[in-house]
Amino acid sequence: MRRKLAAGNWKMNGLAASLKELAALAQAITADDQTGILICPPAPLLYRASEAAKGTGISIGAQDCHGDADGAYTGDISAAMIADTGATHVIVGHSERREAHHEDDAEVRGKARAAHACDLTAIICIGETEAEREAGNTLDILAGQLAGSCPDNATAANTVIAYEPIWAIGTGRVPTLEQIVEVHDHLRAKLIARFGDEGHAMRLLYGGSVKPDNAATIFKADNVDGALVGGASLKATDFAPIITALQ
Ligand code: PEP
Q1: Ligand 1, from 92, 229, 243: best to mutate by most atoms within 8 Å of Cβ?
Q2: Which residues are named in the active-site annotation (predicted)?
Q3: How many secondary structure helices (H) and strands (E) does the chain include?
């Protein structure tokens, strides 16, 4: 049985006062061993979030890391720095970074490797554009991104894959359950072909406009092991029902 994961990506939202949402979330949900809960706040909040989350069962993750261990990279953050805050996870290859920062699969793979070297779990994001879907290329595009972004040392313990169709992120549009099933089954087959049992055990999240009112439908798919949630993770009142739908 794969442990489920509800991961919240706060993106560039939140100040210290927002950390009250962690306590509110812990209060609003009934923790259960089968479901991990993760909040990825902006980097300046990582340490305080890790402290605030102690004893709540909520894990803390970053939204990006550099692929090198250290060096002259003004403004960047290394995986070791993230681990030093108490965080345990890091998102890599989010489509907003792939687009705005021109990150390609090789760079994302390097970031995942850097995360693993610091014992962080890497949440590797992949997703097709609307044009790619309309051209009928979704499965090939995703297989290519998965192959290129996942390092060879990926295991079920150190890697989570998040399928996030770019056209569904922040738009309120969601693929049909059939489309989600098709993609997740395809990704599972690719993971098993490459990683064997580890590929079977690796978590596959869906992300893109997950909300309290559509979460239960999305979670019906066998190979959906949880969600990466943006907007609806900012408030405990929105994120808690999504977690409950997963449990
Ligand atoms: C995301 O950015 O990872 C995301 C899924 O955003 P939203 O839930 O707001 O679509």
Answers
A1: 229
A2: 94 (electrophile), 164 (proton acceptor)
A3: 11, 8
